[in-house]
Protein 1
Amino acid sequence: MNTSVRGTAAPATERDVAGAVRTLIDRLDGELRHPDLSPPLRGLAVRGVTLATGWSIDTWRERVDGWYAAAEKPGGHTDTGEWVKRLRKLRSFLATAGRESRHLDADAAADPQARALFGEEGQDVVTTAIDWLTAAGPPDTGPAAAAVVVTDLHKRYGDVTAVDGVSLTIPTGRIFGLLGPNSAGKTTLLECVEGIRTPDSGEVTVLGLRHATSARDIRTRTGIQLQQTGFYDLLTLRETLDLYASFYPRPVDVDALMTRLNIRDKAKTLVKDLSGGIHQRLSLGVALVNDPELVFLDEPTTGLDPQARRVIWDVVRTLRDDGRTVVLTTHYMDEAEQLCDTVAIMTAGRIRVQGSPAGLIARHVGDSVVELAPAAGFDAAAARALPGVRGCVTQGDRFVLRSDDPAALLRTILALPDAPVEARIRRGTLEDVFLAIAETGEPA
Ligand SMILES: Nc1ncnc2c1ncn2[C@@H]1O[C@H](COP(=O)(O)OP(=O)(O)OP(=O)(O)O)[C@@H](O)[C@H]1O
Ligand SMILES: [Mg+2]
C-alpha cells in the first residue's frame, strides 16, 4: 500500500490548513452531491481524490479514521466539533468511494479527466493537511470513545442458547452492522444491549452507563426500533409520533422528522391502514423522536421497496454524519457493504468475524473470486482439489472459489476436460464472506 505523500508540504499555520481542507471537503461534498452529477462522474471524482493524493481509498479510510479519533480526543484541536463534523463527512464519502471507484478501473480514459477535476491544488492542500493532522497523535480507540461495550454476554431461553459469550466494542460515530442467519441471536443480543432483556451473565455499558443504575438516562439518550412493533391502531401516524415525542424532554420537530422519512403525506392515516413499508418507517421515526445519540435498528429495511430503502440509508448516514452511533441488523449484504463502517457476523450465538466490509472481503474472500456453474459430476471436492484453490463455498448451483491468482485458476478451469457451464472472475462481496462463515460457522 502506498502511504507516502507526494508533493512538499509548505509550512502553514494550523488555521490556514484547516481552512484549505475545509474548502477541499466542501468542494468534494458539493461535487458528489450535485444533482446533475451522473454516477460515472461521481466515480471520477472519487478516482480524482486517489490520484490527487497518491493514496488508495483504503489508505484514505484508515487515515481519516485516525484523524477523526485524534480530533475527537479531549484537548485536541481548538475547533474540534467543526473538525469532527468535517472528517465524518469525508469518512462517509470514503465509505462508499471504494465501490464507486471500482467501476472506473477498466476505464483508461478516466484518469486524465479525473486529474483535471482534482489537480495540483487539491494535491497540495491534502498533502499539507495530512502532515498537520497526522502530527495530532495516535488515534484514541479506548473505552471513552465507545458507544457500547459488551463483555462476555450469555443469554439462554430454556434449552436454547441464544447468545453464547459475546464481547463487543462499538465506537461512537459509526454505523455498526450485526449480521447473521436467522436465529443467530442478533435480536437477543440487541435487546440485552438496549436494556429490554436481562442477560444471564456478562456486562453491558451503553454511552458509558449501566442499565442497572442509569436506565432512565440511557432511555432518554438512545432510540430503539424493534424487529416488530405494535402501535395503537386507531391513532394516526402523526398522533403516534406526537405521543412518543411527549414522553421525552427534548423531542425533535415531528414535521421535520416526517419529511426526513418521506411519510408526511400519510400523517393523517390511521396506523391500522398503513402499508407495511410506511409502518416500518413510522417505527424508525419513533426510534428517532427523542433525538438520540445512539440508535438501535433491528432490520430497519426488511420489506421495504428499493426507493424506501434508500430513504432509510440516507437517514442512517445523516445520523452518523451528525456524530451519532447507529447499530443495525440486516439480512441484505449489499446494504451492509454500502452502509456500515463495521460489521460483525454472528452464527449460533457467537461473533465469528468483525471488521470493515472491505477489510473482511480482502481477508476472507479476496478482491476477486472465480464463480463457476459446474459441469455434471464436478463436485465441491473436485473444485477444492484444483491447483491454487484456497477455499470453495457452494452458493446454490454454483461454486465460489478463492485463490491468490484467480486469473490462473480460471485458465485451469477452462482447460478442464469437462468445461464448466459457466465460469467467470468477479469481485468478492460481503455476501461471499457471509455465506462462507454461515456454512462453516467459522471464519473462511
Ligand atoms: N422469547 C424467546 N423465547 C424462547 N426462545 C427465543 C425467544 N427469542 C428468541 N428465541 C430463540 O433464540 C434464538 C435466537 O433468536 P433471535 O431472535 O435472537 O435471532 P436473530 O438472529 O435475531 O434471528 P432473525 O434473523 O430470524 O431475526 C432462536 O433460536 C430463537 O428461537
Ligand atoms: Mg432478529
Protein 2
Amino acid sequence: MTGHRESPGEVASATAVVGFDPIERSWVTEAAPAPSFADAPALDGELAVDEASREAVATDLGNIAHHRPGAVLRPRSARDIAAMIRFCGAHRIAVSTRGQAHTTHGQGLSGGLVIENRHLDRIHSLGPDAAEVDAGISWMDLTRAAYERSPRLTPPVLTGYTGLTVGGTLSVGGIGGLVGGLDTGLQVDHVRELEVVTGTGAIERCSRDDKPDLFEAVLGGLGQCGVITRATIELVPARQRARTYALLHTDNAAFFRDFRTLVDRPGVDHVYAELFPPDATQTYKLYATAFYDPPAPPDDLAITGGLAVEPTIEDTPYLDYVFSIDEGIDTLRETVNWDRLVKPWFDVWLPGSTIEDYLAEIVPTLTPRDIGSYGASLIYPQRREHLTRPCPRLPEPDGSPWAFVLDINTVSETPGPAPEFVAEMLARNERMFARVRESYGGVLYPIGSVPFTARDWRAHYGDRWPAFRAAKDRYDPDAVLTPGPGVFDPG
Ligand SMILES: Cc1cc2nc3c(=O)[nH]c(=O)nc-3n(C[C@H](O)[C@H](O)[C@H](O)COP(=O)(O)OP(=O)(O)OC[C@H]3O[C@@H](n4cnc5c(N)ncnc54)[C@H](O)[C@@H]3O)c2cc1C
C-alpha cells in the first residue's frame, strides 16, 4: 500500500486523514493502487472491483482502521472462496473474510481481496439437537429458526448483539452476552463440525476427531488458517420466558459479594454486570436472569434472598430478551448514526482472583469520556471448566473456578474520522493493557482496539504458539489469510 502515510505516533490532520492502516500500522491520507484481478477465475457468485463496493468494506465498526481492498467477493459457494484463495495465493494477494465486520481495529480488512461471507447464509439442516448452517448466517436468523421449531430450540450461547455472523464469532470465541456463560463455555465450545476453506484453497471438514489441528486452529483462530464456510452448531431446548433481576451498586466489595453469590445461585441461568464511571447513584448494575416455562416461574426470594440491594424485576418473552440489545443498537443506528461512530474498544480476560483488585484500581480513574453516551462497559463471568478449546486464549489458571471478560466499549459522541480521539484512546488501551497483563494476569479478547505487535501475539499464544504456527504453515503456507491483526508479522 503506497498512499501517503504518517507514522503511528504522528496524528494526521483531521481534514486529510482517511483512517489508520492496521496492516502497515500508519495513518492513511490517500488511497493506494489496487492489485489486479483481471485474470480472476469464473465464479458462481460475483467479484466486484468497482470503487463503491471496495470502499464499502474498507473499514469496520470501529471506524479507526481504513484499508481499501482491490476486490470484493460475494460468494455463492465454498467453491468460489476456494477458487479465489487459490488465485490470490498464486499472485501473493492478501485475503480477509468479513462477517458483519463488528470488530473495531481492522481485524478483517485487507488491501487485496475481501470475502463478504454474509452472502452464504443458508440453514442446511435443523435437527433436534444441532443445526448445520452457512457461516455467514447471523445468530439472530439461526435463533429465530430454531425457536420456531417444535419443541423450541436455541443455541446454548448467544452474544448480546445477535446480528453477528456465526463465522465471525466462532473466529473470536463468542461470549454469552445474554445466554450462556455460567455453565456452557463459549460459542466455540458448541461446534460439532466445520467446513473450512484453507489458505491453500482446499475445502476441508474438521471436528474434534477429524483433523483436530485445523478445528483447533480456526475456532477462535482469528481467520489465520482458514475461512469457515459451514458449521454444525449444537442446539438445546429453549424456555418461553426470561425473568431478569437488576441490582444497582456503588460499592465495589458489596457488588462483588452479590456477583459471586448470584453466579452460584440455583435457578440463575445468566449473570453479567454493567460498569459506569463512578457517581453517587450507581457504579455497577448487576443483571441475573432465569429462563422458565409458565406456569412455573422462578422463585424470586430464593434467587434474590440475602443480596445487598433490592432488585427490580423484568419479565419478558425469551426472544424479546435475546434480541433486546439488537433493538437498542437498531435505535442507535436510526438516531445517532451508530455505524459511523468511532469505537476504540478495550476487551480483556481476567483471572477470577484478580478482577476485583483490577476494578478497584481502574474504576476510580474512568471518566464519562472513557465510555461515552452510546458506549458500555460490561463484565461477563465464565466458569472455566466449560472452556474447552485451546483458542481463544485465557488467563493462566489461578485456582479460581471463574474467569471474567471485561469490556470497556468506548464510543465517540459524533461520527469519525477523529484522529486525536483515536490516538488518545489507542494510547489509553495500550497503557491499560500493559498494566492488566503485567500486574493482573489479563489476556486480550481480540475483538477490540488494543495495538498489538508480533511479539505481543507470541506472548498471547504462549505455549500454544508452536501449534498455532505449525497450523499456519500447514494450512496457509503463503500467509495470504487475514493480515489485519498482524499475528504472523515478521519481527
Ligand atoms: C454491539 C456488539 C455486541 C457484542 N456482543 C458480544 C458478545 O456478547 N460476546 C462476544 O463474544 N462478542 C460480542 N461482540 C463482539 C463480536 O463477537 C465481534 O465483533 C465479532 O467479530 C463479530 O462478528 P462479525 O460477524 O462481525 O465478525 P467480523 O468482525 O466480520 O470478523 C471477525 C474476525 O474473524 C474473521 N472472520 C470473519 N468471518 C470468518 C470466517 N467465516 N472464517 C474465518 N474468519 C472469519 C474476520 O476476518 C475478523 O478477523 C459484540 C460486538 C458488538 C458490536
